[in-house]
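> tool_call: predict_assembly(chains=two)
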Amino acid sequence: MMPSPPRVIATLDGTFADFRDKARACMLASVSPDSVDFVQDTPHDRQAPLFGQGATAMVAARGAGLVQSAASVQLPASMQSPASVMGAPAGGALSVPRAYVELSATVALHCDPRRWDVLYRVLYRLCHGEPRLLFIETDEDVRRLRLYEGAVGRDVHKMHAFVRFRRATLPDGRAVFASFYEPDHDVLRRAIPHFVARFGDEAFAIFTPRASAMFDPERACESAGPASEPRSDAAACNAGESGAAAPAAEPRSGAAGSAAEPWAEGAAPGVTFAKGVPDASAAFAAFRSDTAREDEITGHFQAYYRSIFNPARLNERAMRGEMPRRFWGLLPEARAIPELVAGAREREARMLEAGAPPTGARPRGRPRS
Amino acid sequence: MDVRRKLTILADAAKYDASCASSGGRRERQKGGMGNAKGMGICHSYTPDGRCVSLLKILLSNYCIYDCQYCVNRISSDVPRATFTPDEVVKLTLDFYRRNYIEGLFLSSGVVKSPDATMERMVEVARSLREDHRFGGYIHLKVIANASAALIEKAGRHADRVSANVELPTEADLARLAPEKKMDAVHDAMGLIHARHDEAAVERQSSRHAPAFAPAGQSTQMIVGATPTADGRILALSSRLYQQHGLRRVYYSAFSPIPFGDPRLPVKSIENGREHRLYQADWLLRYYGFEHGELLSPDENLDLDLDPKTTWALRNRQSFPVDINAAPKETLLRIPGVGVRSVERILSSRRERSLRLADIARLGVAMTRAAPFIVTLDHNQALASLDDEALAARLRDAALRARGPGPNHAQLSLFAA
């Protein structure tokens, strides 16, 4: 029997940046995909390790680090041409196709713990004689990455679709449109720019179990960067509207004080992110205290949803395919679904009855030519 | 009458219009305003009929002076009536949009007093949303039959999409069921919208500030199954509309039994399966390079058990097998079970290596349908059945099995090639 090669355990914090650093270190140390496991060390994993017997090795590897042999690695010739550079490590540059960098940044958001191993294997193959691997859509590894990518893209799209805002009032009397949402993957940051582009004229907050985001148009005004999305509003603020000098709502008015301040600066102007749901946040407090009160607008929308449904076309399977049951709890209109489905057959029968000619035979089916 | 009650009546009256797309428009959020459009539509919810809720789809009024037999709002129908004020529609649109329920507004109306009087109120809703509230979301205005060119012009200035419904596929069908509507008038309206859309697009190329005209183009709807007209004529008309008037979409709405229906109408459950096959054939016209005449003769109907591409391939076996590793793109697109995305993946992959059967299977191709029609690098056992008389029956059985038990065909994905 061949002795198995010494295994490397790369412990990840679940972010793309961390994977990029560890993967780069492994590449520069010529660690083959077969001899490394990428293990995500999130608090969740620590409570219930996904890789049973690897847990001790994981702890050991964390102490040892992975960079010991990085400096002496020769880059293969196939890595000279590609378009972009994965950062600038201490030990030397590692060039990979730009398409891989973009793809891996997206795949990193997926929740499957095995994604890191596939990402590293593809990275290794790209740099070891298969520089055009990503064009081979029929390759099993590439296909898997594309499926991860597609799932993340769909999750972002579903978030854009299914977030439901409710008007909440902050202690200072200002309105914030707040929402609680549960994406399947870690897509909050990816999804936020869409909401800023669309609703950038008002404050809004989106809470998810993993992270939360808050947008404040006045903060967007203050930090009007050159590439900022709500630039036009920022320009208006800077042109001397009275709102420009008003204090930003969330970070400064929180009664909890700076020590408990949950929000950190985000990438886009006016957006701040927090880990988990920040209980100390005034926006969340306002959102929670308003939970019981379904406002009038929600009621209008529920009425609309009931009326726009055509019972003669009942097709539950198609609905569930696009809007799986796990989303229903987040959607105020979905409460009506069981009743609408149950009533549909009966209502259709009544319509057919009402539409029937008073006498004579009922025409059946469509004449065929 | 309160707004909730009006909404209930006027959404109920609008639900027979199939179109709900919010795609194609591009609009930046205005300074201090709300809403944008990024070209890709979003379905914010789905009702238990499997249809998407993308726009607030309502009528401004369901009073109507016309008497179109297929329409629930015709003058002789005994349904509850209501009329929104333009302000009520504006407020509902803004409130729903702010809560992320919708992408925008799709407004149509029964004909109150006159076509122009009705159209004018609809245009006022769009104008107010855009000018008074700086609303940047999607607006689709239905052109009221026989409305004046001047009002269509105004509608296109504020809306992302304006559309005129052909309603029924032939002049004779219209004469029978919608005597106030004339095919010529519909074509005139479509021609006008098409010309203004293209003009505005050209003007905007030279000046960013030139006013837009319905930047998301136009669509139309045809009711299917209310008259005996065959699918061949329906597809021929669609083909003409795409080519002559540059339509973005033709919607097919299977005739749905309506309350207080006219005795001249068929009384039956709606033909979801037929509607689905029409959409598939429509896709073949727009994305797969087929001509309508290749698929059907004028008095022929689509096969309800088999998708139209498979039907075509079975009738044209002399065009097969297709070599996956050598055939041009337009030929790959004609293989049953192979969609546009799969063709792109095949083209990308085969530049790097020759493809085997297992490679094709990995791409999401429907292999039961595709395998008898293709040549790959390795041996393809299914190819032996290409000239087999029984192939059609086998594919039909496989399609029925895949569909499983169910009341209709609508469970199939629209995008299954």
